[in-house]
Amino acid sequence: MALEGSLRDFGLADILQLIFFQRKTGVLNLEGKLDKIRLLFIDGHIAGAESKRRIEANRLGKILAKKGLFTEEELQGMLEEQQKSNLRLGNFLVRKGIVKKEDIEEILIGQIKETIIQIFSWKEGTYEFTPQAIPVDKDIPISIDTQHLLMEGLRIVDEWTLIEGKITLDMVFGKKTDDVSELSEEERDILFLVDGENDVSTIIDISGKDDFGVSKTLVSLMEKGIIEPKEVLPVITETYPAEAKKSFINHPYLPVFAIAAAVILSLFSVFFESNHVFERFRASEAVDDLRFRIAAYKFEHLSYPETLDTISQQSDPWGHPYIYRYNDYSFLLLSTGPDGQEGTADDIR
C-alpha cells in the first residue's frame, strides 16, 4: 500500500525525511496546480526526477548547445537519431562519445535539484509514494543526498520569503535603461519580456521558467536600476464634499476617541484570548507531530493504526482526547479545542 495524502497535511520536507531515514526505494508522484512531478529514490537517495511541465531531455540538449558542445542544427540531427535508439539523450550522447559523462551528470543533477526545490513553494497538492524496484543507470548513475537537498530547499524557501517582500505577482515593471552590457544572459532573457504591460505572473508563464528564478532575476534587475515598478494610481470610487471631510478630520476629540477605542479593543482581546493562545499553539504542534507519526506508521505497516493509542496516549492541552478516524485511503485527526466539542469553530486540525 502506498504512502499518499495532501501536501497541506504532510509537507514535502516530512515526506523526504521519511523516505531518507527509512532508506526507501520507489517512486514519489506529486501533483500540483501547475505541474506533475515524478521523483525516483534508491535506498533513500534521489536518483531522478521527471516534470510534465518541462521535458528534461529538451532542456539538456539546449544547455549543451549553449555551452558550445554542438550547434542547434547538430542537436536536431542527434535528437532524431536518439529517438530511434530508444535511449535517453544523456545516455545516447555518452555512448556515442559526444559528451563526457561528468558533464551530463552535472547538468542532470542541477535540473533535478531545480525541479525538486520548486515543490517547496507549493501551497497545496497531492503526493503518493509507491515502493518498487528502480534500476540503476549504468551510464550516468545519479544519487543525490536527500538530506542535503532538503537543507538546500529550506534555505531557498527562506530566500523566497525575502523576495516576496520586494515583489508581487501582479507587479508591472518598466525599463529605465536599455544598457544591458553588464547583465548576465539570464537577466537579458527576462529583461526582454519587460514591456510595461506584462505583470510578473505573465512573465513567468511566457518564460517557461520557475517562479522563484524569474522573481529573483527581476529583483536583481530592479536593484541594479535597470527596471522599476510602474506606479499604479489608486481607484477613486466616491468623493465627499470638502466641508464634510474637513469637519470630520479636524474634530478636536478624534485622537482621544481613537486611542480609547484601541485600548478597549486590546483589553478585550487580551482578556478573551490569553487563556487559550498558548494552549492552541501547543495543540497545533501536537497535531502536526501525530500526523507525521500516523503517516510513518502506515508507511512501515502498510495500514493506519487501529487506534491513536497505538502511537500515543496523550490528550490535548485541555485534557480532551484527540479525534482520530481513518479509512483505507486517508485519516482525520483533530483537537476539539477549548470547548471539547467536534465540529465547532475552535477545532484544531
What does this structure look like?
- The protein has a five-stranded antiparallel β-sheet with strand order 1-5-2-3-4.
- It has twelve helices and nine strands.
- With 349 residues, it is of the alpha+beta class.
- The two termini are 25 Å apart.
- A hairpin with a 4-residue loop joins strand 2 (26-31) and strand 3.
- Residues 232-251 and 267-275 have low confidence and may be disordered.
- Helix 5 (101-119) crosses helix 6 (146-164) and helix 7 (185-192) crosses helix 9.
Summarize the structure.
This protein is α+β, with helices and mostly antiparallel strands and 349 residues long. It folds into three domains: 3-162, no CATH class; 173-229, no CATH class; 240-349, Glycoprotein, Type 4 Pilin, CATH 3.30.700.
Q: Strand portion, in percent?
A: 5-15%
Helix content: 40-55%
Mean pLDDT: 78
Overall morphology: flat
Largest beta-sheet details: 5 strands, antiparallel
Alpha carbon gyration radius? 27 Å
The number of domains: 3
Q: What is the straight-line distance between the termini?
A: 25 Å
Strand arrangement, major sheet: 1-5-2-3-4
**Broad structural category:** alpha+beta
Per DSSP E runs of 2 or more residues, the count of β-strands stands at 9
Which regions contain 5 or more consecutive residues with pLDDT less than 50? 232-251, 267-275
Number of helix segments? Answer: 12
Spell out the helices and strands N to C: EHEEEHHHHEHEHHHEHHHEE
